Amino acid sequence: xxxxxxxxxxxxxxxxxxxxxxxxxxxxxxxxxxxxxxxxxxxxxxxxxxxxxxxxxxxxxxxxxxxxxxxxxxxxxxxxxxxxxxxxxxxxxxxxxxxxxxxxxxxxxxxxxxxxxxxxxxxxxxxxxxxxxxxxxxxxxxxxxxxxxxxxxxxxxxxxxxxxxxxxxxxxxxxxxxxxxxxxxxxxxxxxxxxxxxxxxxxxxxxxxxxxxxxxxxxxxxxxxxxxxxxxxxxxxxxxxxxxxxxxxxxxxxxxxxxxxxxxxxxxxxxxxxxxxxxxxxxxxxxxxxxxxxxxxxxxxxxxxxxxxxxxxxxxxxxxxxxxxxxxxxxxxxxxxxxxxxxxxxxxxxxxxxxxxxxxxxxxxxxxxxxxxxxxxxxxxxxxxxxxxxxxxxxxxxxxxxxxxxxxxxxxxxxxxxxxxxxxxxxxxxxxxxxxxxxxxxxxxxxxxxxxxxxxxxxxxxxxxxxxxxxxxxxxxxxxxxxxxxxxxxxxxxxxxxxxxxxxxxxxxxxxxxxxxxxxxxxxxxxxxxxxxxxxxxxxxxxxxxxxxxxxxxxxxxxxxxxxxxxxxxxxxxxxxxxxxxxxxxxxxxxxxxxxxxxxxxxxxxxxxxxxxxxx
Length: 616
Hints:
Keywords: Cell outer membrane, Ion transport, Membrane, Signal, TonB box, Transmembrane, Transmembrane beta strand, Transport. It is a multi-pass membrane protein. This protein is mostly beta strands and 616 residues long. It has one domain (5-615): TonB-dependent receptor, beta-barrel domain (Maltoporin, Chain A, Beta Barrel). Helices cover 6% and strands 61% of the residues. The protein has five helices and 36 strands. The longest helix has 20 residues, at 5-24. The radius of gyration is 24 Å and the shape is globular. The two termini are 32 Å apart.
């Protein structure tokens, strides 16, 4: 099954059968696209808001896209946004980094229902080890968001919103694909009179694909298993929820097996490691009066890696307590006030060097919002009191105006910051305990236009300056660079007509080190994404194109590439759904990042799969 040529043909044929079936079906169900519902987001203001009212650029990965393939990782889903360059060193289970609008891989804050997933050591979220079973939608807020969320949100915020039960059901899903890849999910939901409970269990195994361009290296296998549960209530004047999830498994990756006297790698090998992550999230809210609501959250996220062939390990833990309230001053004005206390800790042995530290910070924030038909504004400020770095004061101002009945424009300006990670301060090869926080200021203007025949379009121009950027210095020790500038343009053209849909998005970004006037690594100047398809409540078929221009990298340049994915489903009856997916249908092998010495990490290649869901 490792070559999987017959199943690949099967899944392609299955997609064609679904398309033909959709055209020849005698009786079509009601068109789910005939009524356009408002898209609601919560990341920009911490409360429900129409996406068209947000005075910033925010995009959504919707439930239909997430449910296409249980095997797909979060990194696969995020590739559909042209403003993101996902760099993953291979396929399943390999390190995945987000470069949002050209900013650094640790400049994007990743949340799950408000819980911070960025680690104390690397500063990035373990996207490659997060399960996608229980996701409702993913919100991508672009631009600085440190006023509401504190450190790390220089480039933006990616927030994973989990599902909440809406009806009583039990289900089983199974998907099988190339490279002996399998995933199974079992789950149950219960809800009655505003109270609900949910449980999920999942397992994923794969022989995976080559991740490195050396023929003698074997593929990097991957397996994971986990479960999640939640219970809560949503009543007229109060709500609460308790969520728990854990995921664990093993994966292989390529590392340097031997170095010469000048620290050049002269041999490579596959290394095995065990991973685990665990999240606990307790949330509550109460409507104190018609104008005043109070929210509270206690959460903990643990992210651990243990090397199986040595003593090295990385154990991260983030604990947070948050209290915030929203008060409706007038019919059109509200005030959001809050305080967040955070403790992040890391316990690490890296290349035989041990270091342990924790950091505590408390953030106080205030945001005023004005909402009236045709005008939406935000004005906010935050004071972050950090145990290591003292006080940081940041602010943001934004406005969206309905210029014409079908035309709206927005503008915003904001500052943000990111504290150095434990790796940056203490690692044995380049750490510097004297590093200062990175600081940024960003400007953005944008326009959204609704057109005839179901068309809509948008354009945004943005400029971000980061001072004290942390980079490798001449002596291979990390230091604060004077300045880096990220400037670019983002546009989209969207069309919806009944069951037909299409969205084309394009992003141009120039990310440069201003000291030496060179492009920063792994930032393609140009990115394009296009998804088009047809879908109703019984059938669906769509294809996606993702393309990137070439990028500068360590001792090399990574060539540009383009890939095409295809997805199809058939709701055979209310209890049985069949689906098929082909990621990278052309099996394009492209270089994701440079290892140095002329060697590269490669992408995961094609992954064709098919599956069934049985639900009652």
